[in-house]
Amino acid sequence: MINPAYAPEDVPAPSGEALAFHRALPGYAPTPVHDLGGGVFVKDESDRLGLPAFKVLGVSWAVEQTLRTEPSVRTLVAASAGNHGRAVAHVAAQRGLRARIFLPERSLPARREAIAGEGADVVVVNGTYEDAVRLAAEEGARPGFAELADVGSSRPAHWVIDGYATLFAELDDRYDAILVPVGVGSLAAAAARYGAATGTAVIGVEPDVAACLTASLAAGEPVAVDTPGTAMAGLDCAEVSEAAWPTLRAGITGTVAVTDSQVVEAMRALAARGLAIGQSGAAPYAALPVLEHELRRERMLLVATEGPTDPEGYAAAVA
């Protein structure tokens, strides 16, 4: 759908503060952009600072800001569908901190094990991602604890968006449009800020069964949607982040919804080109054939946000 409230002049400028921080991290390097031909390019986030997803950009910056303002923090707490939690656990270990990650009941064992493998205490919640968010917020309010949220209105939720600006600051070329997975909307908000600053259209891609941004744009305010579950675990979100919403409302050009089966086909097509991209990361490629005429552009950048974070599911999809 076309965003009826699109007003890029109302979008805040992207933060440049995190870029210098990220450049100083051991192992930092810009992730590659692959030319697929026909005016389609892919920003490949399958290997970012030692992790198979982009999330570490927002988390590392939010942790740095948290420790600057609250040096007494010893334990980081987060709710996650998988990638965010692993990034929090990974950065916590690097900074000599403990981590406790709350995961929804339908999170896959492979993602739970990956988080535990980073040294975190994993808590599986008998409920949804939103239930995990609530419990993480309660835990993060304890003395010596800090919640590293990428949803809500907290300072860390804003810092996460600022950290994601590095992904777009790395772009050397200009594109007519960027297709970005949405989820709670933090990455999409960073994309929208870049888009408003450069005159680039930004199109959000969501699962058809968790299209919370599409519903919110149609309503003119954040609304929650029912989420029966999707293989795109990182996008299985019922509502957008409060921190991201003002930027999304003004800066997203439009949205496209895709199905799990369309994403499987996209994963296969990307694998045939030598790119191992997971379910959420393949969503923008899946959106290409279903873009409305008004949203099509000549040079389109797809943000492939993750590698195969569910190895078994990936193998089955591309077999």
UniProtKB/TrEMBL annotation:
Tree of life domain: Bacteria
Keywords assigned: Pyridoxal phosphate
Cofactors that this protein relies on: pyridoxal 5'-phosphate
Residues forming coiled coils: none
Keyword Iron: no
Family annotation (Pfam families): PALP
Domain Tryptophan synthase beta chain-like PALP: 27-305
PANTHER family named among the record's database cross-references: DIAMINOPROPIONATE AMMONIA-LYASE, PTHR42937
Protein name (Swiss-Prot/TrEMBL): Pyridoxal-phosphate dependent enzyme
Taxon lineage: Bacteria, Bacillati, Actinomycetota, Thermoleophilia, Solirubrobacterales
